[in-house]
Specification:
Radius of gyration: 13 Å
Largest sheet: 5 strands, antiparallel
Oligomer: single chain
Shape: globular
Helix content: under 10%
Structural class: mainly beta
Number of helices: 1
Distance between the termini: 14 Å
């Protein structure tokens, strides 16, 4: 496997951690669709914006949202 370096942006979620339905995309302000890929890690979620197609890794315990690279950024790397 090849390693690459990518810049990632993160921010604190404005909604309370217990109010997952209120989490919104910081780019277009649409509600994020939430997915729990690992049932053993219920506080780590994948947020997907159906409007602007951005993906986010969410740590609900610390209320941090990390924007994942899009296809263009990955192709440039």
């Amino acid at each position: 496997m090849r390693s690459i370096n990518l810049a990632l942006g993160f921010l604190r979620l404005e909604a309370e951690p217990g109010h997952r339905q209120g989490w919104r995309c910081p780019s277009c302000d649409r509600r994020l669709g939430l997915h729990q890929p690992d049932v053993e890690s219920p506080d780590r979620l994948l947020g997907v914006c159906m409007e602007c197609r951005r993906w986010f890794l969410i740590d609900s315990t610390s209320a941090i949202l990390l924007r994942l690279p899009d296809r263009d950024a990955l192709e440039e790397a």
